[in-house]
Design brief:
Largest sheet: 5 strands, mixed
Number of helices: 1
Strand content: 25-35%
CATH topology: Immunoglobulin-like
Low-confidence stretches: 1-23
Shape: globular
Bound molecules: copper (II) ion
CATH class: Mainly Beta
Helix content: 10-25%
Strand order of the largest sheet: 5-7-8-3-9
Radius of gyration: 19 Å
Length: about 180
């Protein structure tokens, strides 16, 4: 009788801690999303809109609200291999400055060419586009979906351009 009760309690505890871990650990970072060429000072980043159903598809690689940070050394060329995997919604991508509020829709990109073509309308489901730019100036930026309302709903992650960084990196970060 006692053993059964202890066993039952331990099982409940185990279930509770798994649920807690799932809540706090967030989506997984796939190191394969980043491909760096240090000789060429260039980095390719796989960026998938609606990779998971998180936030109704309003996510990049499953992350929302700044919970993923791409860091690149200043002056490197960045290619975003952008793909929209959303079955329902169009999405776009744009690099914008990290300001007090996330823009409602398209703004001037932080670097020349740092935006997909149809920022407003977005790319339809299943399509993609390579977005290539030079991360010319150090600072804090957002990788942001400019389809009106998507960014403010949380469809943005972070880009840090760093003069101290020797190589690009990818890490899960505290959400907004
Ligand atoms: Cu979007």
């Amino acid at each position: 009788m006692l053993a059964t009760r202890i066993g039952g309690g331990a099982m409940l505890l185990a279930v509770a801690s798994v649920a807690l871990a799932a809540q706090t650990s967030g989506p997984a970072v796939d190191p394969g999303w980043l491909r760096a060429d240090s000789a060429a000072r260039s980095v390719a980043v796989t960026l998938v809109a609606a990779l998971t159903p998180a936030s109704g598809g309003l996510n990049f690689n499953g992350f929302t609200g700044g919970a993923l940070t791409v860091t690149v050394p200043t002056g490197w060329t960045v290619t975003l291999h952008f793909k929209n995997q959303d079955q329902f919604l169009p999405h776009s991508v744009e690099i914008v400055r990290d300001t007090a509020s996330v823009p409602l829709g398209p703004v001037t990109p932080a670097f020349p060419h740092a935006a997909s073509k149809a920022l407003d309308q977005g790319l339809p489901a299943g399509s993609g586009e390579d977005v290539r730019f030079v991360a010319a100036k150090p600072g804090a930026y957002l990788i942001f979906c400019a389809v009106p309302g998507h960014g403010q709903a949380g469809m943005w992650i972070r880009l840090t351009v760093s003069s101290a960084a020797r190589a690009p990196s990818l890490q899960a970060t505290a959400p907004h």
